[in-house]
Every structure is written in C-alpha cells, then in structure tokens.
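Structure first, sequence second, as always.
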C-alpha cells in the first residue's frame, strides 16, 4: 500500500473520531478550553505529533456546539483575535458516554479480527 492509501485510511478513520476525542478532552477538563489549546493538548497526548490537523478541530467544535453538546463564549485576547472557549453540556456528557460505548464495541470487534486472527 502506498503512502496516499495510508493517509486516506487515516483521514477516513479520524473523521469519525474527532468528535469523540474532543468531547473526551472537554469532559475531562475542569475549565473552559479554546480550540488552539485543545489542539495542543491532543498533540501533547500523542507525544508531540498531531493526529488531527488543527484545522479539523474548529469545524467539529462548531458542529458540537450547534448540536447543543457544547456551550461557547468569546473572550477578548490581548495577544491576538478573540478566543472562543468551549465547555461540555450535560447533553454533551451523555453523548460522550454513548460515543465512548460505541467506540469500545467497535474497537473490540475490529481487534477480534486483526489481533486474534479470527476467521469466518
């Protein structure tokens, strides 16, 4: 498989995981977080390498907010443009738990095939 196929697979896989990961970060945080800060936390958690492009984070944060899973507020910044801070809602926590359960079921299903060599 060439690199372009690997990149496409990673992009397709990430597409469904970004919302789950963003909800997880915000569910674990005691404070409101802004997009750049979230992106940096994701990068740090992956040993300095971003698994998601920073530009991927912002549209998903907006979509989660529009769906009522996050609240947001804009705060002026002295070092640049205003920052939009996000906080997970109760509905967002419920959705996060549901997404997490789906992820675990999916992960376990895939692992049965690729780790254990199950044949049909």
């Amino acid at each position: 498989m060439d690199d372009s196929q690997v990149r496409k697979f990673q992009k397709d896989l990430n597409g469904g995981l970004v919302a789950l990961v963003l909800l997880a970060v915000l569910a674990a945080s005691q404070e409101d977080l802004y997009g750049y800060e979230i992106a940096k936390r994701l990068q740090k958690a992956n040993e300095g390498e971003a698994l998601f492009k920073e530009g991927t984070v912002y549209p998903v944060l907006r979509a989660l907010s529009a769906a009522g899973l996050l609240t947001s507020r804009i705060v002026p910044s002295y070092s640049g443009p205003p920052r939009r801070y996000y906080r997970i809602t109760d509905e967002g926590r419920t959705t996060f738990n549901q997404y997490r359960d789906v992820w675990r079921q999916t992960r376990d299903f895939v692992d049965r095939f690729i780790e254990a060599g199950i044949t049909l």
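Margin note: The mean pLDDT is 90.
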